[in-house]
Design goal:
Blueprint: H1 14-17, H2 25-46, E1 52-56, H3 66-80, E2 84-87, H4 93-103, E3 108-113, E4 127-131, H5 134-143, E5 145-150, H6 155-169, E6 178-181, H7 183-194, H8 196-199, E7 212-214, H9 217-231, E8 234-235, E9 261-262
Parallel strand pairs: 1-2, 1-5, 2-3, 3-4, 5-6, 6-7
Antiparallel strand pairs: 8-9
Helix pairs in contact: 3-4, 3-9
Length: 263
């Protein structure tokens, strides 16, 4: 269930200690056990949320900014198309996308991260899950999504975006659509990718087709919907059902009916 954790959450600094080199074997085993429990909790909770589109973007944009308004429109378009809108669950762009989905009666979920300066889940989530480790959180944001929309953002957004592109490039995941939203913000970055990396041989021209750049939420979502239906076998059929013998009863609690399903 959202907000429930076993083993109990550690102090805020604990996730960083994993990355400080070898520790006593008992500590490493305990960390591995906690990570496994966190992954398992995410798998059980997110298995039933339906086909998702993840929206990446900065927590720093306020409601008064055009980026917030654009993300809210993106969330609404995704909700109308029958997708569950998944974000990092925090404020800014994440809040706006979840809010847009809520505006049109769509599904809205968040994968929140615990930080020393606590990030509270935004108020537009139907369900939310909390994680102690960024890599577990990113696993969930990628694993359950059929497309990715990248709104303006900083280091975190760039990290999530380029890791996702690397997974697509190396075929660790399918060639799901990835859309950069905002030509004025992302144009200089993509101009760079079209220049120096290709000239130096670290990228191929064909690899730039792994993503799209647009300012139109309607164009982005129409393309995602078309590819999701035609290429990845989505339909408006029934969803997977929880099994009582796996302890999954109640996993769909508080969810509304309808939306896309998997054939």
């Amino acid at each position: 269930m959202p907000g429930s954790h076993w083993p109990p959450p550690p102090p805020a600094a604990a996730p960083e200690k994993i990355l400080t080199g070898p520790r006593p074997r008992g500590s490493e085993l305990w960390s591995a056990t906690r990570i496994f429990a966190e992954v398992l909790e995410g798998f059980r909770g997110l298995h039933f949320v339906g086909p998702c589109v993840t929206v990446f973007g900065s927590a720093r944009f306020t409601e008064a900014t055009p980026e917030y308004r654009l993300a809210r429109e993106v969330g609404a378009e995704l909700g109308r198309a029958g997708f569950t809108v998944m974000t990092g669950g925090g404020p800014g762009i994440m809040e706006a996308a979840n809010r847009g989905a809520r505006d049109v009666g769509g599904r809205s979920i968040g994968c929140n991260i615990r930080l020393p300066k606590e990030q509270q889940p935004n108020p537009y989530l139907d369900r939310w899950f909390e994680f102690d480790h960024f890599f577990v959180r990113k696993l969930m944001l990628v694993k359950y999504s059929y497309a990715f929309i990248v709104m303006p953002g900083g280091f975190g957004t760039l990290d999530e975006t380029f890791e996702t592109l690397t997974l697509i490039q190396t075929r660790k995941i399918k060639d799901f659509p990835l859309v950069f939203m905002g030509t004025s913000f992302w144009g200089p970055l993509i101009q760079f990718l079209r220049g120096t990396p290709i000239a130096r041989g670290t990228l191929d021209e064909a690899e730039l087709s792994l993503f799209q750049l647009t300012d139109s939420p309607q164009e982005a979502v129409a393309g995602i919907r078309e590819r999701a239906m035609a290429q990845f076998g989505l339909s408006y059929g029934p969803r997977a059902k929880p099994r009582w013998y796996l302890g999954e009863i109640g996993a769909l609690r508080n969810w509304r009916g309808g939306g896309a399903g998997v054939r």
